[in-house]
Design goal:
This protein is of the alpha/beta class. Helix content is 34%, strand content 22%. An eight-stranded parallel β-sheet has the order 6-7-8-9-10-11-12-13, sandwiched between helices. The chain has a four-stranded mixed β-sheet with strand order 3-2-1-4, with no helix packed on it. The model has no long low-confidence stretch (mean pLDDT 96). The structure holds zinc ion (ZN).
């Protein structure tokens, strides 16, 4: 079904309106009278939003927690080693089974687009082929964009051929991991190679960049320079950028305008950054999240990714982008009203722009993709991480659930609550 009428949906501006989707496209927002033959749902005045977008994930590693063992130290490096132990035993069927389960979790939580890095270090490209299959299989319900990711290092593991082969198979974005190469010089060389490759092939770039607490890890500077030199402005994303947390303030005051000039997109991964960074610190411990408020002020597009769910690096998660934004808001101390709204944008419209999703948004002419959340607005969505009452794609309901209400009985005094603060 590709037609749907949604009655009484509350928009960000507080207005309650109806949304008419015909042939998978939003054709009307306003007062729409019920039409026979078109399925109708009542949003009951609850908040409506365009779907969540996860701009950074690892679908090939997800839900592998405990295989073959758990990460005892909880560190990034033990995670990378553990992934190395797991890789020889991977099968395409197991990879796909776990990826399917994750995609179903994501859809139920209202995420309908994911950019996933896929490890190309294995010459057989088993994981790449499995993820391309999942991309095809889930295309009706979820936009899955794949990044060719040299987890073991492009130069360090001599994986240029694997990366080129992955792109030839249909992987769309060029990845990298310059801080994991053996030296700063190798890191710079990898960035130059990968950006030139992206320029030649007309592709986007999204690198794991400076995922450390080392204030001298400045690969973002080289990435910025190469972006400008090759005319890649607006097509390059820096994922993590955690070393920016620890950099000298004067240096950052020079770096931010360079990033703005290159129109670098920033993808922070708050759940993972707060758990993996600062591990070498005694007290006080650094937070290790990149400088989000300052990057937004500098005019950069900032998005948040989930990065991991139950894998060698992170033992928790259910793929909920509201968990991600909730964590970012706290760690970056973004409790100002517009800052909280920016945190919501960082899991919706900003990553949609980074991924280049066409027809994304809640306007006439946009695709008929939207969510009804059991709350009143975007900030309340962050506070409650509420039930996703309806998840709609192309005018079809992909997932739905009942309103969550708790019934209390306090010595005979009966009442109920849904935690909603005010119904304006
Ligand atoms: Zn990652």
């Amino acid at each position: 079904m590709s037609d749907l009428l949604i009655k009484n949906a509350r928009f960000k501006n507080g207005k309650v309106q109806d949304i008419l989707i015909l042939k998978k496209v939003i054709v009307e927002i306003g007062n729409v009278s019920e039409i026979t033959d078109i399925p109708t749902i009542d949003a009951k005045g609850y908040f409506v939003t365009a779907p969540f977008v996860d701009s950074h994930f690892h679908l090939d590693a997800t839900l592998s927690y405990g295989i073959p063992r758990v990460n005892k130290s909880g560190t990034l490096l033990e995670g990378i080693n553990l992934w190395g132990e797991l890789k020889p035993n991977l099968t395409a069927d197991a990879l796909k089974e776990r990826a399917r389960k994750l995609c179903q979790w994501a859809i139920a939580r209202g995420t309908l687009a994911i950019r996933s890095h896929v490890d190309i270090s294995d010459p057989s490209l088993l994981a790449v082929e499995a993820m391309l299959d999942i991309q095809n299989e889930y295309r009706p319900w979820l936009d899955l964009q794949l990044v060719a990711f040299p987890q073991d290092g492009l130069i360090r593991a001599n994986s240029k051929d694997n990366l080129n082969n992955a792109l030839a198979l249909g992987v769309e974005v060029v990845g990298g991991i310059p801080h994991f190469e053996r030296t700063m010089d190798d890191g710079a060389e990898s960035i130059k190679y990968l950006c030139e490759l992206a320029a030649k092939k007309g592709l986007q770039v999204d690198m794991h960049c400076d995922e450390s607490d080392d204030p001298m890890s400045r690969h973002i500077e080289v990435l910025t320079k190469e972006t400008i030199r090759l005319g890649l402005q607006g097509r390059v994303a820096g994922s993590h950028l955690t070393s920016m947390h620890s950099m000298d303030n004067y240096y950052v005051s020079k770096l931010l305008p360079l990033m703005t000039e290159a129109r670098i997109s920033v993808i922070a991964n708050p759940l993972i950054n707060i758990t993996l960074q600062g591990r070498h610190d005694t007290y006080p411990k650094r937070r290790g999240l990149t400088r989000i408020p300052e990057q937004i002020l500098a005019g950069l597009t900032v998005a948040f990714g989930h990065d991991c769910v139950m894998d060698p690096w992170y033992p928790l998660g259910s793929h909920d982008m509201l968990d991600v934004a909730h964590m970012a808001l706290h760690v970056a101390q973004m409790t100002g009203i517009t800052q909280m709204q920016e945190c919501f944008n960082a899991v919706t419209e900003n990553p949609a722009r980074i991924l280049g999703l066409e027809g994304y948004g809640l306007e006439k002419g946009c695709k008929g993709d939207l969510l009804v959340l059991q709350c009143m607005d975007d900030v309340e969505a962050l506070r409650l991480r509420p039930a996703r009452l309806y998840v709609i794609r192309d005018g079809s309901i992909l997932s739905s659930t009942q309103e969550v209400v708790y019934d209390l009985d306090l010595s005979g005094h009966k009442s109920s609550t849904d935690f909603i603060f005010s119904r304006t």
